[in-house]
Amino acid sequence: MEAKCRDEECRAKLLLRLLMAQSxxxxxxxxxxxxxxxxxxxxxxxxxxAGATIKAWIAAAKGLLERGLVLMLTSRxxxxxxxxEDHWLLEHASYGDFxxxxxxxxxxxxxxxxxxxxxxxxxxxxxxxRGLEFFAAAVRGMDAQAEEAFLARLAEAEAExxxxxxxxxxxxxxxxxERALLERLPAFRAPVPxxxxxxxxxxxxxxxxxxxxxxxxxxVEQREAPDLLTSEYQCSPLVADWLRQGDAPAPKLEWLKxxxxxxxxxxxxxxSSLAQAAAAHEALQIAGEQSAAxxxxxxxxxxPLNRAGLYATLxxxxxxxICRSQEPSxxxxxxxxxxxxxxxxxxxxxxxxxxKQSLAIVQEIGDRSGEGAMLNNISQIFKARxxxxxxxxxxKQSLAIRQEIGDRSGEGTTLNNISQTFKARxxxxxxxxxxKQSLAIQQEIGDRSGEGTTLNNISAIYHANxxxxxxxxxTxxxxxxxxxxxxxxxxxxxxxxxLVRCVCLVKAIGNxxxxxxxxxxxxxxxxxxxxxxxxxxxxx
Length: 540
Fold this sequence. Notes:
28 helices; 4 strands; elongated; two-stranded parallel sheet; disordered C terminus
């Protein structure tokens, strides 16, 4: 070989040809972690012996691509002469995927009880699953003290990783405009589409080109966002930490506000998910807009968490801060929501305390609508405890206010709640009277969800009286759309279509009922075999 090949490229090509001959031209050459041999200023391979050797092997491999050889390179930085069309950015695992992998690796239970511990590991390991495997093996069998020491070592490891990336040198070789954009990117704590990046760089030349320059040296991470059919970008967490700890100026308030405004826009117009609502909330807080953040949480986060049954999360992580809001109306709503969550978990005494605090505030500020809602909600505490007289007292006060201010939707809800209190006492006739009043209002104002609930409750009254024919009428085909619409706005575990009750009714009155076939259509709707509709309870 020495006689035939006098340079490294020739030797590499000969060896590769021999390997291809042995593998029927099915050969992959993988050169890993090339950043260790790249210059941070030009990103080209070093001119030393190791760099020259790698250059020779890459050149030899390129000459054999048409014969079937596959050449793969991995690096934090794309080589200057590497074709853009052959450049594939690899994403880090999301925190959700990282968490699932951690469970599969059976990390100690303490890491799930302490929310910050696994997140800290995720940040330090940079979402690397192989690193997680080593981490899991290292902490298995450790006691709490040893785990804490290991976490401290992780923090040191993070600094070492930053040093390995030669961040200072890499950043120093960026253009002034690229560095300016990089310093602004930590204003976003979550990945955003390119439009969000542009929002921070309106005064800089060609923001998209600047972003591409930062991507090329891995100072910015890219991932796909299937829900938006686009890519998202974020300053690498390691880079963001390095910037915070170094001489780089903190993001200006104007950038933080721009980032918050974009996250809000993204939720309202592009991505109305709970995760996006939480990202917008965090951005508002970071921008110093706490009042707006509190209002945002009440409008877009508390409701979904409540419907998902995450009462403990609301009570521990979200509502306490909002209950201290300087805005009386916001504080009153947060106190009322706290009372609702406590009612859900059966802590009636504490729930009543919070609801009464909320009631006092709305009365003080003259919020008649809030007062009517809060009186209605307090009634449910007494009903749950079996004190029907006191419950009715609060409900009638609520009804009077709602009629006074013309709150037709609230009036329908309160009438329905009054009916259910009479039903609980066994007074079905009075309950039916209130239900029919509620139904008339809901049909008048087009409240289809409330109408579905009321029709169901009327059916329940006839069923309790043994009038199965009439009960089935209220669950017949002409009401199915009402029930299905209700599904769209009620939490699945609390929604019901009386399907099981329909079966009982059909059995009770025989098989000659014309609606039986039509009811069967409803039974085929997935996951609708639920117990009973909730009684109307104001979302305050």
